[in-house]
Amino acid sequence: MTRAAVLCGTGSCLPGRRVGNDDLAALLDTSDEWIRSRTGIGARYWAEPGTATSDLAVGAGQRALKDAGGSAVDAVVVATATPDRVLPATAPLVAARLGLAGAAAYDVAAVCTGFVYALATAAGLIATGTADRVLVIGADTFSGILDPADRSTSVIFGDGAGAAVLRAGRPDEPGALGPFDLGSDGDGYDLITVRGGGSAQRLSERPPERGDGYFSMAGKEVFRHAVLRMSQSSARVLARAGWRTSDVRWLVGHQANRRILDRLADDLGIPRERGIGNIAEVGNTSAASIPLALDDAAAAGLLRPGDRVLLTAFGGGLTWGSAVLTWPRPATDREPVHPCPAPNTRPEGATDGHHV
Length: 356
Ligand code: COA
Fold this sequence. Notes:
Elements (H helix, E strand, L loop, with lengths): L3 E10 L3 E4 H5 L6 H8 L3 E4 L6 H15 L7 E5 L11 H7 L6 E5 L5 H14 L5 E8 L10 H4 L5 E10 L7 E8 L7 E3 L20 E3 L1 H23 L8 E4 L4 H11 L10 H4 L6 H11 L8 E8 L3 E8 L30
Parallel strand pairs: 4-5, 4-6, 11-12
Antiparallel strand pairs: 1-7, 2-3, 6-7, 8-13, 9-10, 12-13
Helix pairs in contact: 3-4, 7-8
The site of coenzyme A has 21 residues, from helix 2, helix 6, helix 7 and strand 12.
Pathway: Lipid metabolism; fatty acid biosynthesis
Subcellular location: Cytoplasm
Keywords: Acyltransferase, Cytoplasm, Fatty acid biosynthesis, Fatty acid metabolism, Lipid biosynthesis, Lipid metabolism, Multifunctional enzyme, Transferase
């Protein structure tokens, strides 16, 4: 019998500091009106110095494991572009802090597409019998890499983490994940990037500059790619699944920009009101974006058993990916999703990430 990965729990975590558009307008040449009308974002949450990606990942992981009704997993996969350190990966630390030392643990780096890539690798672990239960977390703290003087990126990104627990099951049961569609185009390598900190920097002829550590993005080109790549990838995954667009009850696109999500829905022929999203409240949380949106929607009782759900994401690389699933179960009695204070369980010596 073919094995499939079945979703059995979700969780999320946001840092405590809510930053509204007016807070940014006090620091930068921008306005609430500009940010809302160009991006659909009203607020985002930024980690305080001292809070690392692993803190948010642990918070989301704890909640997802509780939601799944059991803490044992064979693997922990963390999708992130802002790991606690360049090396080692963040996942082993997260696993240990969740009491899961011994489980396989690794990071997936596909920026905003990271969670969908991580889901695909986790589904592969389950399909091959390598693991029976996997915790998949998308977590990022972009506030630590944003150029405070760059109004085009500072207003967009927020910090957060979202998580899902997958268990082994059958491909025909509700919650079964897949098919997937994944892709990349390294010709767009420079469009979303942090230039410094990697092995290529020492090949450069000029000495490192302070701005090298900052995130940079070619907004207009990224916008165009995001719509095109997510709509093409969605169409491919729907064809693979044998679903029509009218079968899709909920479209959960990467929460990059409200206007991108609207265009995506229009291109696919899915009514905009079928788009699930929390970008107005959390901004673009990169790898956390899809699981955060899913967890918010599950907690709000929006996702109902049997609802057909399309996930699609786009990010740096360039990368993109999509997956489908049928929502497995009624919402359980949930704690309110936010706030979720990041747990203070970091071991001695693991506090020197780039956020400190
Ligand atoms: N407040 C006020 N004005 C701003 C601004 C801000 N926060 N950010 C940019 N502007 C200005 C620009 O300086 C420019 O001014 P100019 O015409 O005097 O030069 C003007 O607004 C238009 O800039 P432009 O970059 O063309 O705006 P845009 O409509 O493309 O919106 C983004 C900018 C970043 C919101 C948009 O390109 C976008 O959302 N891109 C995709 C981002 C994304 O989703 N990334 C993640 C993908 S994983």
